[in-house]
From TrEMBL:
Main location: cytoplasm
Top-level taxon of the source organism: Bacteria
Gene: maf
GO biological process: nucleotide metabolic process
Pfam family, one: Maf
Role summary: Nucleoside triphosphate pyrophosphatase. May have a dual role in cell division arrest and in preventing the incorporation of modified nucleotides into cellular nucleic acids.
Name by which UniProt lists this protein: Nucleoside triphosphate pyrophosphatase
GO cellular component, one term: cytoplasm
Compartments reported by the entry: Cytoplasm
UniProt organism field: Agromyces fucosus
Active site: D81 (proton acceptor)
Amino acid sequence: MRLYLASTSPARLQTLRAAGIEPTALPPGVDEEAVVAAHEALSGPLDAREMVQLLAQAKAEALVGAEPGGEPVDGLILGGDSAFLTGGSIHGKPHLPDVARQRWLAQNGGHGELWSGHWLIDHRGGRVNGAVGRADVATVRFAALDDAEIDAYIATGEPLLVAGAFTIDSLGGPFIRRVEGDPSTVVGLSLSTLRDLVRELGVAWPSLWNRRPAAE
């Protein structure tokens, strides 16, 4: 069973690989700000859970009808999105060093909620047979960093490209004291949730295994 990942996120890709799945990763080409703005214009403001779920669905649906390598998508399509909620505000990727530093000063030694949305489309046989989705949350508690650590971390560029301006699986890992919830949710893809969704579509989780574990 082929899994198509509607994302170019290295963290999501590595998470799936570690779980024995080598997906076909394709950029969804979704204008996230436009999708959110259009929805809010019709239905009002979105909370964190609603926003990540909306974008996860939009990304997955963007691959319906795609033909990577000249062949139609035949398998399961996974879309995902993440946002960090702290201090009552929703934060995506900071992109700019100054923005990342402001966020770290606000969350330093504190905590927040990392929301990850999942949308899974059954596209076996090259057609849509059904879809399921769910958003999950994990609470992240941060260590207290000094200014030099914050500046050094931002200088690496890593926090500029991830929701909440931190990672758990790379340089930012030592700055996290504790995670309450599925740890893989923090990288933008809850493996336990994905397994539930796969099974809801009538697919056996082991059928997705197509990658040997890395040798120790």
